[in-house]
Design goal:
The chain has about 170 residues and is an all-alpha fold. It is built from eight helices and no strands. About 20% of the residues are buried.
Amino acid sequence: MIPLIEAYQQGNRQEFEKIYSVFEKLIAYYARRFQHDEDALQEFNMFLIEILYQIPLDRFCMDKSCGLQKYISVSIRNQYIFYSKCKQKNDAMFVGFCEPIAGYQSSEDQRLMLLEGLSLLPDKQKRVIVDKYVYGYSDAEIAENLHISRQAVNRLKSRGLSALKAFFEKE
């Protein structure tokens, strides 16, 4: 495993398929746990790519790859936990915002207040939130439309939701 990762870090992209095959089932398992998030698999794949560049290979014995595999597996599990908490936080934050936009049993005052809150957001944050929660686009589709990464979409969404939450708490 160590020679494969060293080769990958030095630019040999073909080694990624061999490394990925070791962790493919684990990544698929954690991605399936996010049933309604089609971006989860891509998020975990991106995480694996990032971690492969960050692994301190000098901490692992050359003849024992099981420690390295365990390190990567635990890192993937920790990423799953982190991703779960972020998703839970974003979902909880947006519960009160989604209904007024869609018009579910909300008063005109609530819709006006939401529109006022949205008007305070920068254009990209506003577009990401509206595309995600009004039109139902996935993060990948929004990223493609705005020509930015999915991670940037997620950051814009989180910042926008935080700003809206602060606005509603103030009101």
